[in-house]
Amino acid sequence: MKARGLHRAVVILAAAPLLLTSLTGSLYSLLLEQGIDAFWLLKIHTGRFGPLNLQPYYSWLLGLLTVVAILSGLMLLRPRPRKLFKN
């Protein structure tokens, strides 16, 4: 798989849980300031999705996905080998 294709796949896979974590954490903080305790948002924020409990692994998963997305993005910065044109 080429570097751009790998990066696209990794970023799509990594972006969803990272966005979900940042949104639920921010929304929970905003609601808590208004006096609303939406504890269910905190559960989602930490990796508990109803019957699916990823809490023991969720921070590792987010960290790993972040590192993989960064590394695949850095692969795109490498200079491409130039193709020689034949006349």
**Helix vs. strand class:** mainly alpha
User: Quick one: biggest sheet?
Assistant: 2 strands, antiparallel
Helix content: 55-70%
Order of strands in the sheet with most strands: 1-2
Supply the number of structural domains. Answer: 1
What is the strand content? under 5%
Task: Report the radius of gyration as a whole number of Å.
Answer: 19 Å
Shape: elongated
Discrete helix count? 3
Low-confidence stretches: none
Mean pLDDT: 86
Number of strands: 2
Distance between the termini: 30 Å
Order of secondary-structure elements = HHEEH
Model description:
68% of the residues lie in helices and 5% in strands. The two termini are 30 Å apart. The chain has one domain. With 87 residues, the chain is mostly helical.
Offer a few descriptive terms.
2 strands, 68% helix, single chain, 87 residues, mainly alpha, two-stranded antiparallel ribbon
Summary?
The protein is mostly helical.
List the helices and strands and how they pair.
Elements: H1 3-33, H2 39-45, E1 48-49, E2 52-53, H3 55-75
Antiparallel strand pairs: 1-2
Helix pairs in contact: 1-2, 1-3
